[in-house]
Amino acid sequence: MAELYRLLALFVLALGSVAVSVAEDGAKDAELRSLPCPDPQDISPCVCTVDLQHNMDIDCSQVESEDQLAQVFSSNIPFPTFQKLLIDRNKNLRVLRNGDLGPASFQIIEIVNGILEEVQDGALSHSYSTATRIDLQANHLSKFPFHEIPSFTSLSSLWLSLNSFSEFPIITSDSLTDIQLNTNFISEIPLTGFQGVKNVKTIGVSVNGITTIAPGTFTDLPHFDTLFLFSNGLSEIPAGAIAFSGKGVIYLHNNNISKIAVGAITGLGNGEIYLYGNSLTVLDEEVFGAFLSAGATLNIDDNPLGCGCEIAWLITNSAYMSLISPGASCYDGEMLMNLDPTIYEDFC
After folding, report:
1. 3-state SS assignment for residue 17
2. Residue range 134-154, pLDDT digits in tens
3. In terms of pTM, does the model score above 0.70?
4. Which of 40-62 are b and which e, b meaning 16 or more Cβ less than 10 Å from the residue's Cβ?
5. What tens digit of pLDDT does each residue of 216-238 get?
6. How does strand 236-237 pair with strand 242-243?
7. Which residues of the chain form beta strands (DSSP E)?
């Protein structure tokens, strides 16, 4: 009987050892891999993380070449549907080649602050139906497959600022709402430049070399509400150039604007217009009175404004003055808010 108990005890100990071994192996595997992420060793130097909703992000900021990136995405990736691809501050990738991302698809593609010069045709094709944002800002891009944009059926944001595009791209999309092309080398926007993106809300083309805007350039866009056009070379805004959808915000500061035509900007409503750092000498009542009567706020700081009778319509209207930036001044530095309206009432 004693021998039987000894054998039973040994059996129980053996079972315990097996259970501990299995638990240890499981813990070790958990350290190596968080499902649904791939095995970390298969995708190194990329790193996959997953949230509580099983959304996977993959960070490939440390890849050393295009070939290594292709090797990562040709490895064993059981679940190739990612939420986000991040490649930040990488100084090795110059071309995103067709096939480098294997079968993987992404909702957010963020390759920023690097030296990327080209995105080849088809390089992002597996994300046609999934991508909602493509962010390739602060690179050296001059080549991008814009003709593929209509295939990105869920894409709402295309951010290509701080790159090397010299010609305005033809963009067609039923889904895009936000297009950012700031700080490139674009000198001209064709009249039909934005007519293929009827659902766009926000457009950024600041810090380029744009000197003129043709009438109709930013019109017939039923959802349009925000325009970044600052720090270009504009001297005037012609009639019929910009039409918002009922309330707008427009950034025109740091140009050389001396004239805004009647009807140049419509649909602004009680929005905002930034015109500081320009060359305005006269505030035409027919133009600026229309903005202010609709309730729009107007920033006209740092303009060489004449402050004679031509500005009486503004100084004598306290409601209008409440919508003017407090730093607005005459060409001689006297603040508009300090001008005495009774003088204008008596002499103008």
Report:
1. helix
2. 999 999 999 999 999 999 999
3. yes
4. eebbeebebebeeeeebbbbbbe
5. 999 999 999 999 999 999 999 99
6. unpaired
7. 47-50, 56-59, 81-88, 95-96, 105-112, 118-119, 133-135, 157-159, 178-180, 202-204, 226-228, 236-237, 242-243, 249-251, 259-260, 265-266, 272-274, 297-299
